[in-house]
Structures are given as structure tokens and as C-alpha cells.
């Protein structure tokens, strides 16, 4: 071995897990020096017996003999080096780690590649792309201590979460220097695509390592560095490293809450042009920018054609832009892919903004936050045509925040009329709180809001409407698409009048309101009527009455309402001056309530209770939490199979069938056997008797069919897809289950179901029983993830099973009765060779015994005394 410019040393390299060890040729052998694999800058082998490695700008040459044509040993050394490096970085090509590789002839390198392709197929990558191994390598490279807990967290927690985001906050308990190898491990890691370092204290060395990672990484796509105290010089360095890494995959940059100022925005403009995949997400909120810096950014966005089709998220909130943002207006006016725009609190004049939005942002925009900006720089100016036009033509807008905008009456009117004319967007959330709408704004709302069908959520809090709010509430009740209403801090006067209107809504049988927020109104006793109305309300799921000082009397009324209410799931009650007695009443009420699942801990009211009596307060609050957890657990337990008790269906109908079987068997014994007709009659009766015996356990067997179908449920795989796809999957599932149940019926009662007409009529009757509305599926996906879907499917299976069981039992009874009459010589009976009547299996007659009216959820209200109705009651209770 020889060092260029140094004395010649004989020896061979040894490849350790992270380093090359150079051994002396003397005895005893010792390590002369060693180098980390990441220090290798170049690898050359221009002769078969020579290998040169450039390490830290020094060249180390290895000679393996005098025959320059024999390359076997050198090739083995290159292969060993390649294997050692690929064991650490299995998903990155060697050429990306060692920048210069020159092996002559190229056939030698091709042979090494072929061998590597075979080895790669056998090499285990390890959890998270081998991160732990790479972390250990970086600890060796930087001379840092290897932390077992870091490797354990990644190999266990990160793997179980299946996340591709490395969050430095998970390791903020370590010293700053210990974060360096963690960050460095991302250089050649292909698993993690996101680095989040928000609100973590990072040293300059750590920030430099992040920049170094961006210079090397091929896979890092998203960078979140908010609130780190970064300045403009960091953005300048960021642009430099992106220029050095043309293969960078970065497309998401979050520098919010860092005072990079206009200088940093100008540097960031240069970064945007160097992003190969275009920019998808840009967040520079609260960065101290002015219109100058934003105009530079917007100019860069305009000049990059790919950005118009890639940028979906733009957040500029909290910067002082004012109205000199022509380049931003230009960007908005070009057709773009923006889905989320947040320019709240930027002092932008809104009436000038919508001229740009209506030209380029009506197609894809979903979220628009323009709150805390003045609508107009002049008083009493009419809203521009583009303002109303934007809201009437936007296709996908789901969230609009125009709070704190001092909306004039005409602007509010155009906003509502524009939305009323919109036939495209649905389920939109509108926030117009804190606009000082006053009496005039209340009249506009009263006259327009009922016709705005695209709104599902409305926030009109703190608008100084006083007594006019009562009429607004009544107008809102006429809007059947509105599900969520917030009206906090809105009742300084005329409280009782306004609350009467709210109570009137809740008592309406057609009330569809799911969320009601009446917080911080200090209503005291004026809240009592609303609490009384909760008992009978069937729609409200979330109620926020915090900050109303209702006291223990109000808590007692709420407790009584909760004892009979079966719809509320979330109740917010803090800041109401409720004492220990009030919480005892609530705990008692929750014992009989099975639906409330969440009551945020009322820390303001509980604190004085803790001071007065710590032990009792702790006990009652623990009881409340235990009962809430019970309700949540109860929801999950609904997915468990329902045990059916053996012999449960041996009710009056089955007992009547058993008596008829006994009578028919007796008639068979007494019948004359001397004619062919008698033989046919007896054989027919015997077959029906066998079906009657089998029908006793038919419902249990049908339940088993449904139970076996629950394994590997096809619906579970569809829960994350669109509601229509899930609806189709459930219909398919129910059809398969029904077919299997019918198959089971044929196996249990083959004599009866040999007739195809009977089978088709049963299928027709079952078809009406296994329908599930698409709206029901959509609600479950949004609110309950799929628990209710699975429960509903089980209910439908039970209903189909009940339908099949009852109709089979009825048919067996009827056919057996005809056979019995023939055997005893009743002239009114129909002969065996005559087709039996099918009226019981027809759609008009299927409810003869209450079968068509069976409802698992509402069975307690049935007037029919059929045993299957009792079965429905049992199932609903068991569930």
C-alpha cells in the first residue's frame, strides 16, 4: 500500500461495519489508521492490480501484485467495500455516496453491479429503511455516543405508526449534540420523506446538519422548521444547498414564525426556482414580511410554470402586506391548483382581492381564510361585482373565514346571495363572527340565510345583534342544510327572548341541528329552558354552554336532561360556577346515559372544588371520566358477535307448529295405506314434518352464516374510500350473505325450497329488508369512522335472518296444515299435486305476522306480539 506523497507501507485494508482499517505488515499486526466510509471521495482502479481511494483529499493506493491484468483481488476489495456500504445504506446506489467511481475497463464494474443486484434481493433493509443502522453509522462518523433509546423509538414506535415523518421533538430530551447523528441519518435514508423540527431548540450545528441533509438527500420531500428563530441567512443557505442537489425531491417548505423578513423572502424566491418537483406547500406565516417580500415571492411563483399546477397550500397570515401586492393578485388571477389560502391578519383590502380570486381560484379552492382584514378602505362603498360572483361560481369551497372584517351590510348581502345561487359546493363552513353586524346585519341574515343551502356550519358569534338575534335564529331554523351553529358572546340584552327562539328550534320535531355553541353569554337562569328542552331533542350531538354561570341549579337540570337524552355525545360545561354538588348530579345522570362520550375537563370550575375538598372532588371527577370511558368502550363493544340463546325461538308460534307436527304424525299413523294417493300424501307430510323440525334452529344457523361472514369483513377495507364505494360494498356484502343464508335454508329445508318461484319470492321479500341509505353511510364515515356501519350491517343481517326464519316457519306451518287436513279428510284442503298458495310470501302479505315491520332499533315500539319482535328487543338490548 502506498500513500501519495508519503512513505510506502505494505499491508491490506480490513472492512469493519463503518470504517476501513489499514493494518501494518509488521508482526504483531496493528491498526495503522482508519477512515469512515463517508469520508471516501473517490474510488479508482485503472489497472487490474491497483486500487486508489481518495479520503479527505489524500489518495491511498493499494497494490496487489505485479500483474496489472489480474484484477480478481482488487475486484474483491471493491466488492467488499460496496457490500459494507450497502449494508448501511441498502436503498441508495454506491455512486450517490462515493461521487467519483472510475474502474477500467467498464466490464469489471458491470460484473460488480450484477453481483450487487443478486445481493440486494437477499439483503434485509430493516425498519424504516435501516434507520437504526444508519444512525449508528452517523454516531461513529461524528464521534457521538450511540443512544439505544433512539434506535428503539424508531424501530418500534415509528414502525408501529407507519409514519414517514421524523419529528425531532420526539428526541428533545437529548442534548443538542446528540441530535446531530439523528439528523445526519436522513442523508441517505429513503424511508423518511418528512422532517419536522418545529418548536424545538436547535443549535447552529444542528441547523447546519439539516442543510447538509438537504444537500445530500434524494427522498426528503417535506421540511417543517416553524418557530426555530431562523433568520434570512438560513434561507440564503437553503437556496445554496438546493442548487448543489439538483435531484432534491423537496416540495414542501414551512418557515412560519421565523423572522426571515423581506430579505429572507427574496432568498426564498430563488429557492422556488430550484425545486424540481415544483412547490406544493408554502407556509411563511408570521415571518415579518411586507408587500415587498411577498411581491418577490409571488413573482417567483408566476415565473415558475410548474407551480401553477403543483402549489396547493399557501399561508401568508400575520404579515403586514396591506394593499400593494400586485404580483400576488396576478398569481391568484391565473388558473392555479390552490386548495388552501390563508392571508388572515395581513391588512389586505378584501374588495380588491376578489377580482383576482374569481378569475383563477374558483375551481380548486377548498379553504379560504381572509379574517382580520378590512373589507374596504372607504366607508359605505358597495361590494364589487366580483365579490358576489366568486361565491356564486366557486366549485369546491368548504371553509370560509371572514371574521373580524367589519363587513358592511351590502357585502354581507352579496355574500349570502352569492352562496344562495351556488349550485356546486356543499357542506360549507362559514365564519362571520366579530363583524359588528348589528341590527342591519341581523335583518340581512334574517331575510337571506334560510335560502343558503350550501352552508352546513355557521358562526355568528359576537355581532352585537341584541334582540334581533331572536328572529335570526328562527330564520336559521328554516335552513334544513345547516347542522352546526355557533352564537357565543351574543346575548348582552334580551336574553330570554333569544333563548325562547333557540328552545323553539330544539323542540321542533324537524330540528336537524347537530352542534350548538352558546358559550360566554352569562345567561344564568335564562339557560334553564334550553336545558329542559334537551331531554326530548333527537338531533343535537354537541353542546357548548361554557361560560354561562348556570350554577348547581343548571347542572341539576342538565343532569335530568341527560338521563333521558340519547343523542348528545359532547357537552362543554366549564366556567359555569358548578360546585361539587353539581358534579355529583352529573355523575348520577351519566350512570343511566349511554351516549355522552366526551366532557372536556372543567378545570376552571373544578379548581375551587379541589381546594375545598380534594378527596371528594377527585372521586366524583374520576367517576365521571369512568362513565364516559364506559360509553366509548360500549361503542367499540357493539362490534362483538351477539350470542343467541339456544331455544330462544321456542315461542308460541314454534309451539303451535310443534303441536301441529304431533297431530300430523298421529294422523299419519291412522291413515289408510291402501291407495297411491295416500302414499303421496303421507310422503309429502313426512317431508314437511322434517322441514318443520329443522326450522327450529334455522335462525341460529342463519346467525352462524352471518358470523362466519364477519371474518375478514369486506366493508372494513372500504371505510377510507368514498361513501358511494362503501355503500356499494355493503350492498354486495349483504347480497352475498343473503345468498349464503338462502343456501343454508335450502340445505335445512330442501323439500320446501325446491320450487324456484318460492325462492324468488323470498329473495324479493328480503331485498326490501337489506337496504341501507347512502346518507347513513356518509354520516358514519364523517363522525364515527365505521363503527356504526358495522353495527348497521349486523342489524341488517339479523333482520334478513329474522325475515327468512319467520317466512320459512310460516310456510312450513301453512303447508303442514294443508297436509294435515288432507290426511284427516277435510274437503276444503288443497291436494298435494295442486300448487300451494303463495300469498304469505308476496310483498303485500309479508307483514302478516309483523315480519316486514321488524326493526332492531325500534322494536320496543312495535305493537305486534310476534316472537321475532321479542327477538328484536333482545338483540337491541344485547347490542
**Order of strands side by side in the largest beta sheet?**
9-10-11-12-13-14-15-16-17-18-19-20-21-22-23
Helix- and strand-based class? alpha/beta
Put simply, the count of helices is 31
Q: What do the pLDDT scores average to?
A: 82
How far is the first residue's CA from the last residue's CA? 79 Å
How would you portray this structure in words?
Residues 14-90 form the CARMIL pleckstrin homology domain. It comes from Zophobas morio. Residues 834-865 are annotated as: Disordered. This protein is of the alpha/beta class and 879 residues long. Among the domains are: 2-122, Pleckstrin-homology domain (PH domain)/Phosphotyrosine-binding domain (PTB) (PH-domain like), CATH 2.30.29.30; 126-194, no CATH class; 652-878, no CATH class. It is 47% helix and 10% strand. The strands form 3 sheets. It has a 15-stranded parallel sheet with strand order 9-10-11-12-13-14-15-16-17-18-19-20-21-22-23, with no helix packed on it. Strands 1-7-6-5-8 form a 5-stranded mixed sheet. The longest helix has 37 residues, at 787-823.
Amino acid at each position: 500500500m502506498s500513500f501519495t506523497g508519503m512513505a510506502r507501507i505494505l499491508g491490506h485494508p480490513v472492512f469493519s461495519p463503518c470504517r476501513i482499517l489499514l493494518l501494518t505488515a509488521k508482526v504483531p499486526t496493528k491498526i495503522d489508521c482508519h477512515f469512515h466510509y463517508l469520508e471516501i471521495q473517490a474510488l479508482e482502479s485503472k489497472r487490474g492490480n491497483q486500487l486508489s481511494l481518495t479520503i479527505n483529499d489524500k489518495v491511498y493506493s493499494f497494490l496487489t501484485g505485479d500483474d496489472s491484468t489480474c484484477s480478481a483481488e482488487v475486484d474483491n476489495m471493491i466488492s467488499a467495500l460496496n457490500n459494507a456500504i450497502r449494508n448501511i445504506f441498502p436503498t441508495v446506489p454506491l455512486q450517490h455516496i462515493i461521487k467519483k467511481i472510475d474502474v477500467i475497463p467498464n466490464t469489471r464494474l458491470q460484473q460488480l453491479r450484477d453481483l450487487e443486484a443478486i445481493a440486494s434481493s437477499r439483503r434485509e433493509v430493516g425498519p424504516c429503511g435501516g434507520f437504526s443502522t444508519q444512525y449508528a453509522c452517523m454516531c461513529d462518523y461524528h464521534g457521538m455516543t450511540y443512544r439505544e433509546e433512539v434506535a428503539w423509538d424508531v424501530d418500534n414506535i415509528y414502525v408501529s405508526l407507519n409514519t414517514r415523518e421524523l419529528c425531532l421533538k420526539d428526541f428533545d430530551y437529548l442534548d443538542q449534540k446528540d441530535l446531530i447523528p439523528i439528523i445526519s441519518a436522513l442523508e441517505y435514508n429513503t424511508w423518511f420523506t418528512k422532517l419536522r423540527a418545529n418548536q424545538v431548540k436547535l443549535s447552529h450545528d444542528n441547523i447546519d446538519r439539516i442543510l447538509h441533509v438537504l444537500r445530500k438527500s434524494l427522498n426528503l420531500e417535506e421540511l417543517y422548521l416553524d418557530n426555530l428563530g431562523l433568520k434570512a441567512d438560513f434561507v440564503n443557505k437553503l437556496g445554496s444547498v438546493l442548487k448543489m442537489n439538483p435531484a432534491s425531491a423537496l416540495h414542501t417548505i414551512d418557515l412560519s414564525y421565523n423572522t426571515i423578513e423581506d430579505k429572507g423572502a427574496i432568498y426564498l424566491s430563488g429557492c422556488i426556482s430550484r425545486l424540481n418537483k415544483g412547490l406544493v406547500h408554502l407556509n411563511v406565516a408570521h415571518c415579518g414580511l411586507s408587500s415587498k417580500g411577498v411581491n418577490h415571492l409571488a413573482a417567483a411563483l408566476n415565473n415558475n410554470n410548474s407551480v401553477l399546477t403543483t402549489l396547493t397550500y399557501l399561508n401568508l397570515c400575520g404579515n403586514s402586506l396591506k394593499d400593494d401586492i400586485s404580483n400576488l393578485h396576478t398569481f391568484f388571477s391565473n388558473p392555479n391548483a390552490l386548495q388552501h389560502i390563508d392571508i388572515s391578519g395581513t391588512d389586505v383590502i378584501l374588495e380588491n382581492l376578489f377580482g383576482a380570486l374569481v378569475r383563477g381560484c374558483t375551481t380548486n379552492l377548498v379553504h379560504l381564510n381572509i379574517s382580520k382584514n378590512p373589507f374596504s378602505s372607504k366607508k359605505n362603498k358597495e361590494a364589487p361585482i366580483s365579490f358576489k360572483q366568486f361565491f356564486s361560481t366557486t366549485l369546491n369551497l368548504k371553509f370560509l373565514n371572514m371574521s373580524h372584517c367589519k363587513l358592511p351590510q351590502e357585502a354581507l348581502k352579496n355574500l349570502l346571495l352569492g352562496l344562495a345561487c351556488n349550485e356546486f359546493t356543499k357542506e360549507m363552513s362559514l365564519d362571520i363572527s366579530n363583524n359588528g353586524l348589528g341590527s342591519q346585519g341581523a335583518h340581512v341574515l334574517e331575510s337571506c340565510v334560510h335560502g343558503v343551502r350550501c352552508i352546513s356550519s355557521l358562526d355568528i358569534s359576537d355581532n352585537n345583534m341584541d334582540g334581533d338575534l331572536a328572529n335570526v335564529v328562527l330564520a336559521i331554523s328554516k335552513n334544513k342544510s345547516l347542522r352546526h351553529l355557533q352564537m357565543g358572546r351574543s346575548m348582552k340584552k334580551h336574553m330570554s327572548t333569544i333563548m325562547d327562539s333557540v328552545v323553539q328550534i330544539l323542540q321542533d320535531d324537524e330540528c336537524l341541528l347537530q352542534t350548538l355553541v352558546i358559550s360566554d353569554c352569562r345567561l344564568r337562569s335564562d339557560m334553564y329552558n334550553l336545558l329542559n328542552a334537551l331531554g326530548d331533542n333527537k338531533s343535537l350531538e354537541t353542546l357548548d354552554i361554557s361560560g354561562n354561570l348556570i350554577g348547581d341549579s343548571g347542572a341539576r337540570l342538565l343532569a335530568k336532561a341527560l338521563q333521558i337524552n340519547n343523542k348528545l355525545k359532547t357537552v362543554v360545561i366549564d366556567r359555569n360556577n358548578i360546585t361539587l354538588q353539581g358534579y355529583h348530579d352529573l355523575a348520577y345522570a351519566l350512570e343511566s346515559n349511554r351516549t355522552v362520550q366526551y366532557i372536556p375537563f372543567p378545570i376552571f370550575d373544578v379548581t375551587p372544588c379541589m381546594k375545598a375538598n380534594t378527596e371528594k372532588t377527585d372521586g366524583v371527577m374520576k367517576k365521571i371520566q369512568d362513565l364516559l370511558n364506559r360509553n366509548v368502550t360500549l361503542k367499540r363493544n357493539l362490534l362483538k358477535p351477539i350470542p343467541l340463546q339456544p331455544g330462544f325461538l321456542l315461542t308460541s308460534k314454534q309451539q303451535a307448529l310443534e303441536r301441529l307436527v304431533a297431530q300430523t304424525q298421529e294422523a299419519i299413523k291412522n291413515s289408510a295405506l291402501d291407495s297411491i294417493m295416500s302414499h303421496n300424501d303421507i310422503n309429502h307430510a313426512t317431508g314437511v314434518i322434517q322441514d318443520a323440525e329443522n326450522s327450529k334452529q334455522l335462525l341460529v344457523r342463519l346467525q352462524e352464516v352471518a358470523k362466519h361472514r364477519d371474518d375478514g369483513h369486506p366493508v372494513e377495507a372500504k371505510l377510507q374510500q368514498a361513501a358511494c364505494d362503501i355503500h356499494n360494498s355493503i350492498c354486495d356484502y349483504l347480497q352475498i350473505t343473503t345468498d349464503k343464508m338462502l343456501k343454508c335454508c335450502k340445505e335445512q329445508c330442501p323439500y320446501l325450497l325446491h320450487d324456484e318461484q318460492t325462492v324468488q319470492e323470498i329473495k324479493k321479500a328480503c331485498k326490501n329488508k337489506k337496504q341501507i341509505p347512502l346518507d347513513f353511510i356518509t354520516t358514519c364515515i364523517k363522525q364515527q369512522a365505521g363503527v356504526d356501519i358495522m353495527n348497521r350491517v349486523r342489524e341488517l343481517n339479523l333482520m334478513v335472518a329474522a325475515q327468512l326464519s319467520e317466512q320459512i316457519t310460516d310456510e312450513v306451518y301453512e303447508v303442514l296444515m294443508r297436509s294435515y287436513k288432507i290426511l284427516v279428510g277435510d274437503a276444503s284442503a288443497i291436494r298435494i299435486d295442486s300448487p300451494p298458495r303463495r300469498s304469505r310470501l308476496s310483498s303485500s302479505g309479508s307483514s302478516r305476522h309483523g315480519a316486514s315491520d321488524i326493526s332492531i332499533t325500534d322494536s320496543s315500539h312495535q305493537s305486534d306480539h310476534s316472537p321475532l319482535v321479542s327477538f328484536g328487543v333482545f338483540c337491541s338490548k344485547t347490542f
